Amino acid sequence: MAQSVLTVDVGNTSTHLGVFSGDELLGTFEYTTPARITADEARLQVRHALDLLGLETPCGAILSCVVPSLADAWAQALRRGCISRALVVSPGLKTGLKMRYDDPGEIGADRVADVVAAKAAYGFPCVVVDLGTTTNFEVVDSAGAFAGGIIAPGVALGAASLAQAAARLPMIELRAPKSAIGRNTRTAMQSGVVLGEAARIDGLLDAVLAELGAPAPIVVTGNFAHTMSALLRHDVTADEALTLRGLNLLWQANQR
């Protein structure tokens, strides 16, 4: 077996770890992203994942972090915990992507990883819908360039906002109700939040594909990928490990 590479995607709500041997994904792990973390605590999460896979120290690691207050701790943890080096997805990293974004420095590291993986696996043009704290669209044009995208509140954020802003509305389980017309408060909220999110995604996909002017594969990733894919009227592919595979490809590209 080739030496392992650790990929870490720190999001606002969840932190995902993936371990690769070459292109093979050996395992994935999900942790709740805390408000604060020390380098030692981050190393414990890494060690826990590696122990479950029966692996020793990885040969390298790569980090995507969209929470600035946690980036240094994770970078320190990974640099101490791998044999060769740890990379951080940032403007200085080689990505192979042509950017049509006004300011490429504004693009989140997870979005860069999504686009790299989607181009490699699905070709271009293509569209990625990443379902996390935010719902992000990443659009790759027919020339293979990152054309831009869309950022909207995520489905869990919408549900939490309803419960926090309206005193009589509860937190709900994020699943589709049996009918669009809710017969009680919870199913009415599930219709508005979950079915409403699916309708919004479908509507935005219509607009994106019209602007692209050509058919394109649509890849859905993130924590709600399989749930939401089943509700969309567009033909989509659910790929929950897309971001981690993109990080692994970025690691490989920066070894040459």
Instruction: Encode the helix/strand succession as letters.
Output: EEEHEHEHEEEHHEHEH
Strand content: 15-25%
Q: Can you give the helix content as a percent range? A: 25-40%
User: Quick one: overall form?
Assistant: globular
Number of helices: 7
Radius of gyration: 19 Å
Distance between the ends: 20 Å
Largest sheet: 5 strands, mixed
The total count of strands amounts to 10
**Low-confidence runs of at least 5 consecutive residues:** none
The averaged pLDDT comes out at 92
Strand order of the largest sheet: 3-2-1-4-5
| Broad structural category | alpha/beta
Structure in words:
This protein is of the alpha/beta class. 38% of the residues lie in helices and 24% in strands. It has seven helices and ten strands. The chain has a five-stranded mixed β-sheet with strand order 3-2-1-4-5, with helices on both faces. Strands 8-7-6-9-10 form a five-stranded mixed β-sheet, with helices on both faces. Helix 1 packs across helix 2 and helix 4 packs across helix 5. The longest helix is centred in the C-terminal third of the chain and has 28 residues. The chain starts with a strand and ends with a helix. The mean pLDDT is 92.
